[in-house]
Amino acid sequence: MINPYNYWGVIARYKKYLPITNRTPIITLNEGNTPLLYSEYLSNLLGKGFRVYLKYEGLNPTGSFKDRGMTVAISKALEEKAKAVICASTGNTSASASAYSAKAGIKCVVLIPEGAIALGKLSQALIHGAIVLAVRGNFDIALNLVREISAKFPITLVNSLNPYRIEGQKTASFEICDALGDAPDFQIMPVGNAGNITAYWKGYKEYKAFGKIKKLPRMLGFQAEGAAPIVKGHIIRNPQTIATAIRIGNPASWKQAELARDESGGLIDTVSDKQILDAYRLLAVKEGLFVEPASAASVAGLIKLKKIGYFGGKVQGLKGITTIVCILTGHGLKDPDRTIKTVKPPKIVQADLKAILKEINL
Ligand code: F0G
To answer: Could you count the other beta carbons within 10 Å of the beta carbon of residue 356?
Structure first.
C-alpha cells in the first residue's frame, strides 16, 4: 500500500522493535537513515586491518541524533493525550522537541542554561514557537527543575529520562548493524547526559537477542576534560568545556552509561578541548564533514586511544579486520560562533582580477 504520508522515519523502519501500537499517531520528520561513511584517512591512521566509519547524525531533520528519540517520545505523548511537553537542554534536545511539538501541534517548554547554548540551537527552539526560558544556572540545575515540574504538573518530560527517547535513539545502532552486516568491534561516542550511550547499548543487545547480529561492540565513551563526572567518579558542580552540548556535571543516565561500559568491556575517558577542536578541524578538512564540537569528541577519543596504543596492546583477541564506528552526533552549523573563533577570517581583496589571481596562485 502506498503510504499517504510518504514517511520513512525510524518508527516506520523499526516499528517491530519499538513500543508503537496501531493507536500511536506517528509524528515524524523522516529522521534516521543517516550515512555511515568510510574514512580512508582515519583507517590509514589506525593502520593495516582497521576500518573506521563515521555515522553522520548531523543529517537528521533538526541536525542531531535527538530526532530519533523525539519522534517516539512525541508520538507517545500524543497517544497519551498530553497537551504539553517540557525539557531541559544544552540545545539539541530543545531544538528537536520544539520542531516535533510544532508538527504535533502541542505546547513545548524548554529550559536552557542562560548564555551557554549554541546560536543555531537557540534559533531553532525560538523559530518553532516553543516557550524558551533561559535559566540562570547550568544544565544540571535546569534538568532538576523540569523533573520537578513534570512530576507535579500535567506536562510530559521529553529528556532522555523518558524511556521512549531511549527507544527511538537505539535505532541508530540498528542502522549501523544493517549497514555493516554485524555490529562493529568498537563504537566511539561523546557522553553528556549519557542517554545516547544507554540507547546504543540497548539497541545492540536487542539486535543480538533477535539474532540480527553475532557480536556486540565495545562501547568507548568520551567526556570533555572539564565536564567528566563519570570518569572522575563524582558530580562536577561547575562543568566547563567549549563543547557546550556535553557541558554536564551530573548525567541523568550515569549508572546506565557505566553498565554499557562494563558489560561491553569498553571504557569512558576524557578528551581535552584542544583535542576536540583538533578533531573538529580534521573532520572538516580531511573528510568534508562539518560537525559540532561535542561530536568531534568521538574522533578525538579515537586519536587519543590510538596514540596510547589501546588498539594494539590492551585490546587483545581481535582477528581479521577490526571495525570502528565513531558517532558524529550533531551538525557543525549548530555552532557557527565556535567555527568563526576557530578559523582564519576571509582575506579582503580589491575587486580586481589581478589581485585575486595573485591570491589564488595557480
Ligand atoms: N552530542 C551532541 C551534539 C549532543 O547534543 C549531546 C547531548 C551529546 C552528544 C551527548 O549525548 O547527553 O545522550 O550523552 N545533548 C543534550 C541536549 C544534553 O540537551 O541537547 P547524551
So the answer is: 11
Cα–Cα distance between 353 and 154 in angstroms, integer? 65
Q: Which atom of ligand 1 is nearest to the CA of 90?
A: 19
Residue 160 has pLDDT above 70, yes or no: yes
The per-residue DSSP string of 276-339 comes to: HHHHHHHHHHHH---B-HHHHHHHHHHHHHHHTTIIIIIS----S-EEEEEEE-BBGGG-HHHH
Cα of 334 vs centre of ligand 1, distance in Å, is 13
User: Ligand 1 centre from 92 Cα, in Å?
Assistant: 7
242: its cell numbers:
567549549
Ligand 1 site residues, Cβ closer than 6 angstroms: 64, 66, 89-93, 160, 190-196, 245-246, 292, 294-295, 329-330
Per-residue pLDDT tens for 91-137? Answer: 999 999 999 999 999 999 999 999 999 999 999 999 999 999 999 99
Q: Which three cell numbers stand for residue 257?
A: 552509561
Helix%, strand%, coil% for the chain, nearest 5: 50, 15, 35
Calculate how far, in angstroms, residue 40's C-alpha sits from the geometric centre of ligand 1.
27
